[in-house]
Design a protein that fits this description.
The complex is a heterodimer of chains A (502) and B (141). Chain A is an all-alpha fold. Chain A has 21 helices and two strands. In chain A, 63% of the residues are buried. Chain B folds into two domains: 65 residues; 67 residues, no CATH class. The chains are: A mainly alpha (502), B mainly alpha (141).
Chain lengths: 502, 141
């Protein structure tokens, strides 16, 4: 489908000094923000998207990919050094990483996390680059009925696998779809639920919704939960033995099967919408522990524990782009945000992307390869620097993030009206978080909403309004059956007597 | 005070669904006969789904969550300060209002060190001004 000339042209577009600068900036920013507990790469991507407005699509997306990839490395730093994961997916890294740091090997632990992270990430990128084009060809054979069924399947997976309750997941998905109904209806272009605000005719702006729910709600919650000023108490102490400050080739090589297992788990889970890197990290950790000849050493500073979690959670990043580039369905919030950056630059994600924007996609792949190398390089030289920078007080970090959100949304979505929307969704995000309704499901559903409605309208038209004709579409029927089976299995697995909390 | 929050949340969700179905949608969605589906078809289906899920959540034995009133008040306070800041920004502009907004939030948070207050109130707005106006050549709100 994509000829060699397009691939080479895309790669040559990527490997320019200009793009290199943006990838470096993205990786630095990603590593830095992920190292700060409470900010994280998802929030950084959300904040950064409006600032990529003035750029060409490739440097803009390369920058965001850099932030994403940098985030996979940075989150491990506070997890290892202060037992406080910078990102949820690095929580498993703390299990063995922090004991290693307490044994006087903080540099060994952080460097092993870096090498494992880059190894897992590179593995999943190779899978992404290899399988996405053939998958897109298959996806092109899908009509509106199959797309509708695929989205139902995606909603079932998201609702069932994210969060603690299937019903709450379904409610979050419905609320996200409901928010997507605001604006002109796709069939007749008649205004819906805009209550006289014609700024809403094109729907709620995704940057305002995403920043409100992901960034502002999280920041105000952290501001409110803080009891007094607390700086990050990071102390990089070691016992002076050079062997404890580096990772030898023998140590790295001894973890090869652990990293491979983690990379495969991360890639498989990353390619499935909704499962995410935290699940991948814990699954990889427990399978490595189960396969180990010395399982008792896990949790006490086993290097395989760090290698297992970091290779898995980083492998999710590349694999998350597989459903995004082939089907237009984001596998995670960061993928949904990257998809919104595509759309801001006038690019419609989905199977047609390889046909219409093949050069850009291979440029993106080139940028991902660059980001992997830079992650390794910047991670090695930046470690001590991040530790200094992340000691900045939370008050400064949070107020900086709030100001960037206000300016970013105003720039991205056209004025203060969008900033007010951001604030409303910050409140909604806080309420949803407080009562354990998944924000991730909400945002992905909000993003998929318009396409879901269009697929319903097209399917209705195709079947002349008679939905019993769906049996003439075997792929759609199979996907719907799979959705029902999935929900049944999740319901069977879930424990009906949830223990009391608080 | 301890409440069975899932039950209350379920009832609220079901009520929201009913209000949307019978009050909001008939008033806020125009009826059109063109097209394969009506403008209110999907919203109505979602609202009905919310009613069903809300009832299921209310019936199901759920979790109990302790209410943290202090946290809620503080969240509302911070959001109110940001809202007031936005109102002021829409009249006076970002550059004038942002130092005061930063100062208010940092002081309530408990920050008292002059250097960090200075960096938050003056340094960060200056960096944003440089980034947006000078580098990106866009306008500030």
């Amino acid at each position: 489908m994509v000829d060699l000339d397009t691939i080479l042209a895309g790669l040559s577009d990527a490997f320019t000094l200009w793009n290199l600068c943006f990838v470096i900036f993205g990786v630095v920013l990603g590593q830095l923000v992920a190292a700060i507990p409470g900010i994280g790469p998802v929030m950084a991507i959300a904040i950064a998207i409006p600032f990529t407005f003035g750029l060409d699509p490739l440097p803009a997306i390369a920058f965001l990919v850099g932030v994403c990839k940098g985030g996979t490395v940075g989150g491990a730093i506070p997890a290892i050094l202060i037992n406080t994961p910078g990102t949820p997916d690095s929580a498993a890294t703390a299990l063995d990483g922090h004991p290693l740091a307490r044994q006087g090997k903080p540099l060994k632990a952080t460097k092993l996390a870096l090498f494992s992270s880059v190894t897992g990430d590179t593995f999943s990128d190779i899978v992404l680059i290899t399988v996405s084009a053939p998958l897109a060809i298959l996806a092109l054979r899908m009509g509106p009925v199959e797309v509708f069924a695929l989205m139902v399947f995606a909603f079932a997976v998201l609702s069932g696998l994210i969060g603690k309750s299937l019903i709450k997941g379904a409610i979050a998905a419905a609320l996200g779809l409901l928010a997507a109904m605001i604006g002109a209806d796709p069939e007749n272009a008649s205004p819906r639920l805009i209550f006289g605000h014609f700024e809403l005719f094109d729907g709620l702006p995704l940057p305002a919704v995403a920043l409100g729910m992901l960034a502002i709600s999280e920041i105000v919650t952290r501001l409110a939960r803080n009891k007094g000023i607390s700086d990050a108490a990071i102390n990089l102490s070691d016992d002076g033995d050079p062997a404890n400050q580096r990772v030898s080739w023998a140590e790295y090589w001894s973890c090869r099967y652990t990293m491979l297992r983690g990379a495969i788990i991360g890639t498989l889970l990353g390619a499935t919408p909704g499962i995410g890197s935290t699940a991948a990290a814990f699954m990889s950790y427990s399978s490595t522990k189960a396969a180990s000849k010395d399982p008792e050493s896990f949790g006490k500073g086993n290097i395989h524990g760090v290698a297992a979690t970091e290779s898995a959670n980083s492998a999710v990043v590349g694999a998350n782009l597989i459903p995004l580039l082939t089907l237009g369905i984001p596998g995670s919030v960061s993928a949904a945000l990257i998809i919104s950056a595509f759309m801001i630059h006038g690019i419609q994600p989905g199977p047609m992307l390889f046909k219409e924007q093949g050069r850009l996609i291979y440029g993106l792949f080139g940028a991902m390869v660059m980001a992997n190398f830079l992650n390794l390089w910047i991670g090695q030289i930046g470690l001590r620097l991040w530790i200094k920078v992340i000691s900045a007080p939370q008050s400064f970090i949070y107020i900086s993030a709030i100001m960037l959100c206000i300016v970013g949304v105003s720039m991205a979505a056209g004025g203060m009206f969008s900033v007010v929307i951001m604030l409303i969704f910050a409140m909604l995000g806080y309420i949803m978080n407080r009562y354990e309704f998944s924000i991730v499901i909400f945002i992905i559903s909000f993003f998929l909403g318009p396409r879901f409605e269009i697929s319903i309208a097209q399917s209705t038209s195709l079947m002349s309004g008679d939905w019993t004709k769906i049996i003439e579409y075997p792929i759609a029927v199979a996907l719907l059956a799979l959705s029902i089976l999935m929900l049944f299995l999740i319901l069977r697995r879930s424990n009906p007597t949830t223990p009391a909390k608080g | 005070m301890i409440l069975q929050t899932d039950r209350i949340a379920g009832l609220l969700i079901a009520t929201l669904g009913l209000v949307l179905l019978f009050v909001v949608f008939p008033f806020a969605i125009e009826d059109m006969d063109d097209g394969s589906i009506k403008p209110d078809t999907v919203p109505n289906a979602i609202a009905a789904f919310l009613v069903v899920c809300g009832i299921l959540l209310a019936i199901k034995r759920g979790v109990r969550t302790k209410r943290d009133t202090r946290e809620l008040i503080l969240v509302l306070l911070y959001l109110a300060i940001i809202a007031a800041g936005l109102f002021a920004i829409s009249h006076l502009g970002f550059l004038i209002v942002s130092p005061f907004l930063a100062l208010a939030i940092m002081l309530i948070f408990g920050e008292r060190r002059p250097i960090w207050l200075g960096l938050g109130c003056v340094g960060m707005p200056a960096i944003i001004w440089f980034l947006v106006i000078q580098v990106l050549e866009r306008s500030l709100p």
